[in-house]
């Protein structure tokens, strides 16, 4: 698994796990599929999967499909959120932790690679 030492911006296609203590932004041409954990997320493209963050902004062209655990959710007019959301308490503790997020920490502990990680750029 690649460790991020700063913010990440995606304008291509990514499949797999993104686990970061920093901010992640997904541009209008960005497509992410898998598990995403970040401090905050700005979404202009498509994110399909499970997401855990302190704050997420789904912009006008953004679309989130899946399960979200977040302290703060903003959806601009035109933005789409299709799925379930779970509340994160103050201090970042998760109120409801789905089994798929437990899988993320198990995978980190075993230091194994994700099943597939594909990055495409245009």
Give a description of the structure.
The protein is mainly beta and 122 residues long. It is built from one helix and eight strands. It has one helix at residues 99-110, and strands at residues 8-10, 13-19, 24-26, 31-43, 46-58, 63-75, 80-87, 118-120. Strands 1, 2, 3, 4, 5, 6, 7 and 8 form an eight-stranded mixed β-sheet that branches. The radius of gyration is 13 Å and the shape is globular.
Low confidence ranges: 111-122
Question: What characterizes the major β-sheet?
Answer: 8 strands, mixed
Task: Please state the CA-atom Rg, rounded to the nearest Å.
Answer: 13 Å
Task: Give the structural class.
Answer: mainly beta
Please trace the helix and strand order, writing H or E for each element: EEEEEEEHE
Coarse shape:
globular
Average residue pLDDT: 80
Question: Between the first and last Cα atoms, what is the distance in angstroms?
Answer: 23 Å
> Count of helical segments?
1
**Helix-residue proportion:** under 10%
Number of strands: 8
What fraction strand? over 45%
